[in-house]
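Researcher: Please predict.
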Amino acid sequence: MDTTLSLVALIVAAVAAAVSALATVVAVRVAKKSNEDRWAFEWAGQRPVVYPLLSLDWLRGAGAYVNPLAMSGQACRGLLPLKNGGRGPALNVRLTVTSATGEYSSDVVVGTIGVGDLLDAQLAAPGIDKWSGATGTLSYTDLVEGGYEMPFTVSEDAGQLEVVVVGKVTHTRPQPASPAS
């Protein structure tokens, strides 16, 4: 009888140890998921959103966008205003733009655009004469080195230029840092 009781106690102890190990695995997974959720929430709170902003002055070639080589009322050739409408700074901003005819192309390293800031990207001379049909890509990174890429085109509707996002903005998550050896 003592042997049977010992065997039952051993089985109960083994089951208790297995349940305890399973509970530990579940707790670790929940904690890991919670950390991932916190990271995602923090990332979303610091995300930059950069886009070309075709202001009235830019569209009319007025104010800071006067182009002495263009006719009055024509969009600026050598500058493209970029706005960061997100909640985090945009780092390593780069603009690539090509005219509709393909005769002109420019790749500009813009730098950093702070939250809510507007920055004029200076295109290589002579710039784009006719913006309608021009295509481009904006790429930049965030504080945690996640990457963003936004392809766009400039279209004209009833004589008015507008920026249209082509496809969707792609985001690449940062690579985890490797532990120090």
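Model: Strands lie at 50-52, 79-84, 90-98, 105-113, 118-122, 135-141, 147-157, 160-165, 170-172.
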